[in-house]
Amino acid sequence: MGSKGVELTGAEIVVRFLRDEGVKYVFGYPGGAVLHIYDALYKQEEVQHILVRHEQGATHAADGYARATGKPGVALVTSGPGATNAVTGIATAYMDSIPLVVLTGQVPTHLIGNDAFQEVDSVGVTRPCVKHNFLVKDVRDLALILKKAFYIATTGRPGPVVVDIPKDVTAAKAKYVYPKEIQLRSYKPVTKGHIGQIKRAVKLLVQAERPMIYTGGGVILDGAAKPLTELTRLLGFPITNTLMGLGGYPGTDKQFLGMLGMHGTYEANMAMHHCDVLLAVGARFDDRVTGNVEKFCSKAKIIHVDIDPSSISKNVRVDVPIVGRVSDVLGEMIRIIKEKKLKPRREALAAWWRQIEEWRATECLKYQYSDEVIKPQYVLEQLYKVTRGNAFVTSDVGQHQMWAAQFYKFDKPNRWINSGGLGTMGFGLPAAMGVQFGHPRSTVVCVTGEGSIQMCIQELSTCLQYGLPIKIVNLNNRYLGMVRQWQEFFYQGRYAMSYMEALPDFVRLAESYGHVGMRIEKPADVVPALEEAMKLKKRLVFMDFITDQTENVYPMIPAGAGLNEMILV
Amino acid sequence: MRRIISLLLENEAGALSRVAGLFSARGYNIESLTVAPTEDPSLSRMTIVTHGSDEIIEQITKQLNKLIDVVKLQDLTEGAHIEREMLLIKVRAVDADREELMRLTDIFRGSIIDVTGQTFTIELTGTGEKLDAFIQAVDNELILETVRSGVTGIARGEKCLRV
User: What CA–CA distance (Å, rounded) separates A84 from A90?
Assistant: First the structure.
């Protein structure tokens, strides 16, 4: 607003701001309302625009980039259908608390509300699935609003922020100065946990006889894997991760009991059910985790650490709530334990571990290997081995997602990228593109199924344009597997609309997009195919694994049951 | 339990719909909602009357606090407070009813603010219960139209909701 700064058009301000904010990639798709912004992008080289094939892909790609790098993802779409196509991706990011800034074009301000061509009330449409959103009415507010958007998206409990920019605002001129800092009187996220509460929590932990640690996506988002690992080892407690929290604690470690919840391991769910003190960190007691809340951890005192006060005591009443950044709170816990030389109860803990080992001995993830037909679990086991556990793995939604979570052991955070909250089919491939941009030299695998992959398959074209060497593992059982599984269990095998007829030839499809396609039908060919695909370092390889049609995901907790009421194989 | 929640929020387009949207999206009840700018034109003050169990009220206040536009929040029902609502009621007033309605208005400390040969318009302020009682007291056949403002409220004593 002041006299300082250079005079720029709104479109130039957008691009200059993105550069000054350190944004490297914008995933987007042009259209009438954003043409000025595209023109401004064209005239510079610092901010790279990635052209997707559908706006849903833009938001998922930005989301994948954010999940894998910890930096905010940025998407740019036009007004009307551009914005509505982006909504699924925005809602996906919202449910998983992913920092995203989505710029949507809007019709010129004088036409807003007139049912103009490609007009939709983007702020209204996105309101229920954003952390916050803005409509920019005056070019002089633009830079500050963009700064607010990035600040809100990345601090506190992260989330997507939409900035809706009318076309005339991108043409109008204003003085531009990059706003380095921002303060909002109505938004001051808490960072430090209450020290009294932390001390109470530590006391409960060291006195516990059957302790359990349960951690979620908050640990990944806050980069708190290190203090979590240190605290867990210091205490010698068993630990489980949610679907969103995998990689927060090393998946190959002895103290790790695997994932919990509906398709969690027997040992993790039983330990949850029987524990006497539960430390929940950056997790939100989702219904897929708790099962029946009446029966959830009924014997336990619960400590809950979360950045978002509204997550605490939302589904399950907790005894020691701690609002704060999980990295900060875990760090404080470690400090207190070390300073006071506190020791957990060794004998009780040894007995607890003996019990856990008994549960673990059921080997609940065991499956029947076959020489005849490819078991999906086998593909994931071998994928883990061939990639030495070092790949970034994205997934779509369904059985393959659960098997990937069960069989790929993540030792590091930010490597397991999936739509846990919203459960968005079509997420995997575009998310993998974002991951590959964030980590150009790493192996990025998209685990998917023949149902999910077809929901955003057009992005194979984007992968060709940018030379993204993603490895697609398609577990093709000719069924919408998770739907089929529920129909088998709960609808007496009436497989309504869960069979996928008229599938494309995925090999030729991949080839027509300029990629490498493989069809793998025999178990003996699984490993050679994976190895060959990984050797093709510069090519996208689409591996179409023809898998067992009737395989189910086990264990399973039926909806409404307690964590100790699992269906095992 | 019935609660009165007072909010200070940024006086910006869309702030009201964020609050209203939150209530409908999460299935919370709204009995009434009033809002107007404060002496500081950048802020609006909103009063929401809702009801729910303690757990639900806790979630409502947390979710409201989470909205970026909400600057400050107070649950008035947690302490001593004053609540007021205004009623405008238009009644058919002819013959003996005129005298009766004037008396009734006096008893309830209301005032007649518009008069025609056939009608009175009466203004009445008080708690919701008082307004209900007045409406009950007026012969139902005489009532032509009623409009209520919804509840506004403020804490008693030194306690203030301000930035």
Answer: 10
- Chain B: closest CA distance from residue A187 (Å): 6
User: CA of A125: which chain B residue's CA is closest?
Assistant: B21
What are residue A174's DSSP bridge partners? A8
pLDDT in tens, A36-58: 999 999 999 999 999 999 999 99
Active site residue A212: no
pLDDT tens, position by position, A515-528: 999 999 999 999 99
| d(C-alpha A265, C-alpha A272), whole Å | 11
Average pLDDT, chain A: 97
Residues B17, A309: C-beta atoms closer than 8 Å? no
CA of A297 to nearest chain B CA: how many angstroms apart?
Answer: 19
Cα separation, A535 vs A380, whole angstroms: 18
* CA pair distance B78, B56, nearest whole angstrom: 15
What separation in angstroms does the CA of A148 have from each of A95, A161, A189, A522?
Answer: 21, 9, 14, 54
> Quick check: A439 contacting B, CB < 8 Å?
no
Mean pLDDT of A371-389: 98
Q: Which pLDDT does position A559 carry in this prediction?
A: 84
Query: With contact defined as beta carbons under 8 Å apart, do A206 and A337 qualify?
Result: yes
What is the per-residue pLDDT for A527? 98
State mean pLDDT over A313-329.
95
Residue whose C-alpha is closest to residue A106's, from A170, A47, A33: A33
